[in-house]
Design a protein that fits this description.
This protein is α/β, with parallel strands linked by helices and 153 residues long. The chain has one domain (2-151): Mannitol-specific EII, Chain A, CATH 3.40.930.10. It has helices spanning 2-8, 23-36, 45-58, 114-127, 131-139, 143-151; strands at residues 14-15, 62-64, 67-68, 71-74, 81-91, 101-110. A hairpin with a 2-residue loop joins strand 2 and strand 3 (67-68).
Length: 153
């Protein structure tokens, strides 16, 4: 699992302090972070934002326990990219447990690569499936801490 996680979360892959107050604002902030760090082409930003918001309108990607896993298939993307973010105050994400979301793991997958999409979501689900993992993730405040956690997983 370690190699797959380190491949998925490369470079500037953690936003320690998300500031958006709504789901669309946070999704935009995370997508913009990917573009600014050259992980996705800037011209894909509108496509990414639309796909993520459309996915959330169908069914929330909040999985409970303060976590959300926004994800979308994107035409024009050549490889899987991901970014994690921490929202210190938490936001209403429509979670079934009604808890605010503090940790978000955004995954963008090339369009029509369903197998990779499902494998990536399953990998992330295993990564933060236990209470201890979630508590460790919630305590992270820097990119370096996040990268160390990924390397040691």
């Amino acid at each position: 699992m370690q190699k797959m996680l380190t491949t998925l979360f490369q470079g500037d892959c953690f936003i320690p302090s998300l500031t958006g107050s709504t789901k669309p604002e946070v999704l935009r902030q995370m997508a913009l972070h990917l573009a600014n760090s050259k992980r996705i082409p800037t011209d894909l930003l509108p496509t990414v934002e639309t796909a993520l918001i459309s996915r959330e309108e169908k069914l929330t990607t909040a999985i409970g326990g303060g976590l959300a896993l926004p994800h979308a298939s994107i035409h024009g993307l050549s490889d899987v990219v991901a970014v994690a973010g921490r929202h210190p105050a938490g936001i209403d994400y429509g979670a079934s447990d009604h808890l605010p979301v503090h940790l978000l793991f955004m995954v963008l997958v090339p369009a029509n690569d369903y197998a990779t999409h499902l494998r990536t979501l399953a990998l992330l689900s295993r990564f933060f499936s236990g209470d201890e993992a979630r508590q460790t993730l919630a305590a992270l405040t820097t990119r370096e801490q996040f990268c160390e956690l990924i390397r040691n997983s």
